[in-house]
Amino acid sequence: MHAMVLERPGEPLAWTERPDPLPGPGEIRVEVLACGVCRTDLHVADGELANPRLPIVPGHEIVGRIDAVGAGVAGLEVGQRVGIPWLGHTCGVCPYCVGGRENLCDAPLFTGYTRDGGFATAAVADARFAFPLGDFGGEAGGDVALAPLLCAGLIGWRSLAMAGDGESLGIYGFGAAGHIVAQVARWQGRRVFAFTSPGDAATQAFARSLGAVWAGGSDEAPPEKLDAAILYAPVGALVPLALKAVKKGGRVVCAGIHMSDIPRFAYADLWEERQIVSVANLTRKDGLDFLGLAPKIGIVTQTTTYPLQAANQALADLRAGRFEGAAVLVP
Ligand SMILES: [Zn+2]
Ligand SMILES: [Zn+2]
């Protein structure tokens, strides 16, 4: 197999040949068909997340086809197409796992961070954390189109639930997650207000094309107070701005795994039962719920594809905001 490997944070990923991995008990191996590039991969590559396993193969939006099955795997077989997400393993016995909040597990493994991910021609996963994707026709069911759903879509789904049932929703940072969530929110009958980097007219037009009723810079106030706002941009300075944009009782959801520091702000901006919450990881239930609904919602992902060997270019383009939607690597 070949993989793009991070040896040390801050260095480019290195094109590496390795022996084909074998699935252990309870594991599957897939031929990687496509793997999305997430902002979290940038945080791993930059060393902004503590204690990665090194060397590591990043990538946690894997669409693959099973080509080997380890002992004791139930319900999955060779030839099936599956999605492999960020949550790669949970302990099953900690209070969070037992309480139905395995996204907060005390001893988890994360794909592309603490176990090898999908910037590769092959990947091994814990079978219990792989989602059958089925094979359905049409553009929306293609390997590349589905890849961004595995994290941008799933985290987006969880953050949307966390935002509550409010009808007017602000989205700060209109990238891979934002452009998927906007479509889900519209399908749910909400109105979307998109906030981009100030002056980013292209992304504002992109947001309007996906049904946003308003799009503007993150330094602008929306035309009305919002029920909730979700932050996908890793910029702490947006938190006080989002607080000012929501109504009494409104909620600000921070959906990124890493964010720059939140500047101090006046208590009056939090007063009247406004809330700031974060969203961490996903549960398998999130995955099954969302991936089951995705075909009904008719989500159309905007993707830019790169050959696997061009993973460093994809990461650089993500950092610089050179594409709309999501980047996807194709081996
Ligand atoms: Zn646990
Ligand atoms: Zn991700």
Summarize the structure in words:
This protein has helices at 39-46, 95-98, 143-146, 152-162, 176-187, 201-209, 238-245, 284-297, 311-320, and strands at 2-5, 14-17, 27-37, 62-69, 81-84, 87-89, 109-110, 122-126, 131-132, 168-172, 191-196, 214-217, 226-231, 246-254, 275-278, 303-307, 326-330. By secondary structure, it is of the alpha/beta class. Strands 3, 4, 5, 8, 9, 16 and 17 form a seven-stranded mixed β-sheet that branches. It has a six-stranded parallel β-sheet with strand order 12-11-10-13-14-15, sandwiched between helices. The longest helix is centred in the last third of the chain and has 14 residues, at 284-297. The mean pLDDT is 96. The radius of gyration is 19 Å and the shape is globular. Helix content is 24%, strand content 26%. The protein starts with a strand and ends with a strand. It contains nine helices and 17 strands. α4 (152-162) crosses α5 (176-187) and α4 crosses α8 (284-297). It binds zinc ion (2 copies).
Distinct bound molecules: zinc ion
Strand content: 25-35%
> If you compute it from the alpha carbons, what radius of gyration comes out, rounded to the nearest whole angstrom?
19 Å
Distance between the termini: 10 Å
Q: Helical stretch count?
A: 9
Helix content: 10-25%
The average pLDDT value, as a whole number, equals 96
Which stretches are poorly predicted, pLDDT < 50 over at least 5 residues?
none
* Class per helix and strand makeup: alpha/beta
Q: Give me the strand/helix succession.
A: EEEHEEEHEEEHHEHEHEEHEEHEHE
Counting DSSP E segments of at least 2 residues, the number of strands comes to 17
Largest sheet: 7 strands, mixed
Taken from the alpha-carbon principal axes, the silhouette is globular
